Amino acid sequence: MAQININNNIIEFNERITYYDLIKRHNLGGEKMPFLLKSNGVVKEIRRHAKDGENIEFLYYDNEVVKNAYMRTATFMLLKVMRDIFGSDAKAGLKFRIKNAYYFEIDGKDITGRDIEHIKEKFAELSNQAIVIKKETFTKKEALDIIDKEEIEDVKLLFTYSYRPKVNLRFIGDYARYINGEVLYDTSFVKYVEFVQYYKGVFLVVSDTDDEKDVVVREIGEKTFSTLNTSTDWAKKLNINTIGKLNREIARNHFDDLVVMTESYQDKQIGDIAEAVKASGKRIVFIAGPSSSGKTSFSHRLMYHLHALDVIPHPIASDNFFKERKDTPKDEKGEYDFESIDAVDIELLNKTIADLLDGKEVQMPTFNFQVGIKEFHGNTLQIKDNEIIILEGIHCLNPKLIPMFDPEDVFKIYISALTEVSIDNANRIATSDLRLIRRIVRDVRTRGVSAKDTMKRWPSVRRGEEIAIFPFQENADIYFNSALIYEFSVLKNKVLAYLFDLSEDEEVGGVARRLIKILNYFLGAGVDAIPRHSIIREFIGQSIMNVG
Fold it and tell me: What's the pLDDT at 526?
């Protein structure tokens, strides 16, 4: 007789049985079936079979892993619905995500309002049918034969350059896809979604709260959308918008060409931003962006371009304008909240900027992080009428930062690393995963912070971004995407060893395994072709700029 511990209930069984059937048999979920579960700390789908001696914890929608599985399942369902409506020749795909909304397009077709109504109807039917989502394992050749019938070139390429002898495919009825990660038990688990027609495609919107019924269509920022759409379209035009296509270029020894092309494209964008700064006539430039977006390298390169335009920039380090430690606000846990705007000495910052713009010579502070006070060591700054101030920091798009100034007098730039390369047209790579990998590499190399400590702190960093950065990103005059098409292939060789060491760690093992899985899709590449002013050098090292 086998037994497992489910939410402190000892359940016995003597046959091969799934978690789903055990939960139903003993009414363990009460009124609500769990979406996923944890078995001895490892996330599993409830379709899997129970094993003797397991300790089981139920996972519901308030869990981030569940939200991702919900979205994968909804994506799978929508792609099936699109195929059923528009035919198997219609190449529908997921392009990108904005908060709780996922944007899909069909090649060569504009989705209309009437199409949206049809999609809503068919999606609801599919949900009501409660079709069990099956998982079957095939040899690579068998899987490619199945996928070929659906004409999914990107998945074929992904498997072509994969080391895996076996491939898992998911099925809704006769519709087969490769899905990267956990999915829910059947189609009835996805009920609460909305569909919004936008530009040429459709946004699939899910709940971002604990109540999955509360599906709120957030305002879709035009600047955010435009930047993501431009970046993904550029990668698609180059025919390197998926991992398989990127791997094909590396296998054909085209990596060096790809580096030069990508860096040239990015350098032109920075040059265009410098031109826009000069044309604006504004003397204050603020740069904001989330962690590991490459703000420091971008700021340096922007200043080089400004110098070339005969505009003299003066960088000011925002970190030197923290309040004294005794005046720093604390969070709900009683810890210092350095990511709150109330941790900034706004009065001193505004006075400093005002005095500099008036041509005064100003004593510049240096913040001593060890003792938590600002110090003045005789460092002064004075600027001329044709010179400008550049400040970068997480609060630089928040109007509360500069109450003494009209926001229209400030040129505002938002920078982030928005991944252009996807696994295939059903599976995206989260932007936050790229930034986390960047940060692990940099923190180990320059700050003596272990990969585990960086990963443990990451949820707190992300919460701070949700409060201090993302709500204000639409305030920017210009967006800049710092992601490089080739960088996962380079970062892979820098970070995998740390992740392998942590793959069985109780605290961060789940995240480590997920990142390993993503990175193992990529063929690795060296760094010799990467210029020393590249933004990625801020993370992998040997930058010619003073960026750590």
Answer: 95
* Contact call for residues 481 and 416 (beta carbons, < 8 A): yes
Q: Give the integer Cα–Cα distance in Å for 441 and 446.
A: 9
Query: Is the Cβ–Cβ distance between 531 and 515 less than 8 Å?
Result: no
Q: Which residues of 30-43 are buried (b: 16+ CB within 10 A; e: fewer)?
A: eeebbbbbbbeeeb
Burial of 332 (0-12, 13-18, 19+ CB in 10 A): exposed
Q: Sign of the CA dihedral 143, 146, 148, 150? A: negative
What sign results for the dihedral spanned by CA atoms 213, 214, 219, 221? negative
CA distances from 311 to 284, 297, 359, 386 (A): 12, 18, 16, 7
Closest CA relative to residue 93, chosen from 420, 434, 428, 417: 428
Question: Is the distance from CB of 201 to CB of 95 less than 8 angstroms?
Answer: yes
Q: Are 537 and 485 in contact (CB under 8 A)?
A: no
Please answer whether residues 380 and 364 qualify as being in contact, where contact means their C-beta atoms are separated by less than 8 angstroms. Answer: yes
Strand segments, DSSP code E, in 417-500 are 478-481
Low-confidence ranges of the chain (pLDDT < 70): 148-151, 548
- Structure tokens, 268: 């032109």
Count of CB atoms situated within 10 Å of the CB of 375: 11
Q: Do strands 101-106 and 478-481 pair parallel, antiparallel, or not at all (unpaired)?
A: unpaired
Residue 548, pLDDT score: 65
Mean pLDDT of the chain, nearest integer: 93
pLDDT reported for residue 29: 73
Domains along the chain?
A: 2-59 (3.10.20.30), 65-218 (3.30.980.10), 234-540 (3.40.50.300)
CA 75/CA 78 separation, integer angstroms:
5
Q: Give the pairing type, strands 201-206 and 478-481.
A: unpaired
pLDDT tens track for 42-100: 999 999 999 999 999 999 999 999 999 999 999 999 999 999 999 988 889 999 999 88
Strand ranges for 276-321 from DSSP E:
284-288, 312-317
At residue 2, the 3 state secondary structure works out as: strand
- Write down the residue that tokens 């505002």 correspond to: 412
Contact 116, 145 (CB under 8 A): no
What distances in angstroms separate CA 382 from CA 309, 311, 346, one per listed residue? Answer: 21, 15, 20
Q: Which tens digit of pLDDT belongs to each residue from 235-286?
A: 999 999 999 999 999 999 999 999 999 999 999 999 999 999 999 999 999 9
Token couple for 494: 């820098």
Tokens 């035919």: give the residue: 87
CB contact at 8 A, 249 and 255: yes
Instruction: Quick: pLDDT tens for 377-390.
Output: 999 999 998 899 99
- Helices (H) and strands (E) in the chain — how many of each? 15, 21
What does the pLDDT read at residue 1?
Answer: 80
